[in-house]
Amino acid sequence: MRQPAPVDRPVVLTVAGSDSGGGAGIQADLKTMEARGAFGTSVVTSVTAQNTTGVESTHVLPVEEVAAQFDAVRDDMDVRAVKTGMLATAAVIETVTERVAADDAPAVVDPVMVATSGDRLLEREAESAYEDLVAEAALVTPNADEAAVLTGIEVVDEPSAREAGEALVSMGAEAALVKGGHVEADADVVRDVLVTADGVETFEHQRVEGAATHGSGCTLSSAIAADLADGGSLVDVVEQGVAFMERAIRYHHDMGEGPGAVHHLAALRERADRQPTAEAVHSVVREFVDADVSAVVPEVGMNVVGATPYAEETAETAAVEGRITRTMSGVQPNRGVRFGASSHVARFLLSAREFDPDLRFAVNCRFDGDVEAALDDLGWTVAEYDRDAEPEDVKETEGSTMGWGARQAFRAADGSPAVVLDRGEVGKEEIAKLVAPDIETIVERVRSLNRAVSR
After folding, report:
1. 41, 73 Cβ separation under 8 angstroms
2. How many whole angstroms separate alpha carbon 290 and alpha carbon 292?
3. DSSP H/E element including 289
4. SS3 for 285?
5. I need a surface site. Which of 132, 167, 172, 398 has the fewest CB within 10 A?
6. Alpha-carbon span 235 to 243, nearest angstrom
7. What are the phi and psi torsion angles at 405 (to 5°)?
8. Distance from C-alpha of 156 to C-alpha of 183, rounded to nearest angstrom
9. Where is pLDDT greater, at 424 or 102?
10. How confident is the model at residue 397 (pLDDT cuts 50, 70, 90)?
11. Residue 56 — φ and ψ, nearest 5°?
């Protein structure tokens, strides 16, 4: 008989509706809590028949059943945080408010009123009942439309979001996060405004084009509740939650006839894919050593960078520490492969992935007249960027050139290029950056270029 090895995880309780489509509600909450390292428990307030296109019907459970679920969990477990979502009626809101008020666990109140599809999830006469629940909240997380209902303030930009947040805090909430996803003042950037008694914090992130946002509000509030339960500070857990949600939206699940649903486990999958990615970079390096690709190794050394399928930061890319350099007998890596070992090539690859998310690997190669002639013969799609056009603010910001260059090249390219040329400048070597979606393609491209240059 084996000895048990129990795991101690903070318990979080979600009070929300069920989404038969699996993208929002209780289903989204529990997936997110597990991904954030918490043990999720639930109180189902209503059962909805919905999918990616909308809500077909809603059945609200009797208040007694809602109360019984809440009490059953609280009587048995040490709940460290509570998160509320779809509460549907005034009676349910009042019941939940009573139980939240009687407990010390922080409550994250997501005042769900309308689904992403536009279907209403809260009775209009129940809107005023939210005031007492907001007053018990450690954090309330309305979108612009919900903030307007709760405060009477139309949220159209950052100042009005701040005003609405301050109004919610004056209602008794310890803090308010007014989400900017529904605010179109800036089509490219989303600004989420956090208001506390200590001041205001704004979290900015790029809007994901044509995004599947079904379940995004549930995901954000659940991530925050899970991290609060683990003892995190409010500003830190909100920042982490926003980043978690942004990745979940970008790498959303493509299913159903509607826009799909957020990927609640995207961050977890990123970590799981690190070892295979590192092994892939190792195998590419071995191929280059065996083939002796010294003809295309630049003076600064060659690096091989591999990004996990969900990579968003340089720390989520694997590369050769110290690069690959020419030796008397061929080429050799200076050290091993580790995550975060590359800065320049990694930033270039991450920026390229904004245009072609399938790209996973990049290699920097020598570039001169011989390489240019070889590229002409190979007939690959080639793009380039001109450092003379680089804005001064980009030049002055450490590490910004690679991202800027990738964006310039990919915007101008006809499709996704195989090679991006950097013709350098004083003190900067000319470089050809090869990109590919898989190790077979990146190996073949570098070896083909090496053969063509050697000839």
Report:
1. yes
2. 6
3. helix 274-291
4. helix
5. 398
6. 13
7. -60, -45
8. 6
9. 102
10. confident
11. -85, -40
Last residue of a domain, one of 219, 251, 269: 269
Residues 6+ apart with CB under 8 A from 285: 304, 320, 324, 333, 337
What pLDDT was estimated at residue 383?
A: 94
For the chain, percent of residues with pLDDT exceeding 70: 96
7 CB-side CA count, 13 A: 7
Q: Is residue 418 part of a domain?
A: yes
- Identify the band that residue 427 occupies on the pLDDT scale cut at 50, 70 and 90: confident
136 shares its domain with 204? yes
On whether both 372 and 402 belong to a single domain, the answer is yes
Q: Write down the pLDDT at residue 259.
A: 84
Tell me the pairing of strands 107-109 and 79-84.
Answer: parallel
**Residue 310 φ/ψ, nearest 5 degrees:** -115, 20
- Residues 16-43, buried b or exposed e (16+ Cβ, 10 A)? bbbbebbbbbbbbbbbbbbbbebbbbbb
Q: Could you give the CA distance from residue 40 to residue 83 in angstroms, rounded to a whole number?
A: 10
* Residue where the block lists tokens 């009477």: 152
The number of distinct structural domains making up the chain is 2
- Tell me if residue 29 falls in helix, strand or coil: helix
Lowest-pLDDT range, 135-144, 178-187, 217-226?
A: 178-187
DSSP codes joined into one string, 216-246 = HHHHHHHHHHHHHHTT--HHHHHHHHHHHHH
Range of the domain at 41: 11-269
Helix locations, 77-129, DSSP H = 90-101
Distance CA 184, CA 202 (A): 16
Task: Average the pLDDT over each of 122-126, 242-246, 375-379, 406-410 and give the range with the smallest value.
Answer: 122-126
Tokens of 411: 């915007």
Task: Give the pLDDT of residue 190.
Answer: 87
- H-helix or E-strand containing 47? strand 39-50
Position 105 scores a pLDDT of 96
Report the CATH number at residue 51. Answer: 3.40.1190.20
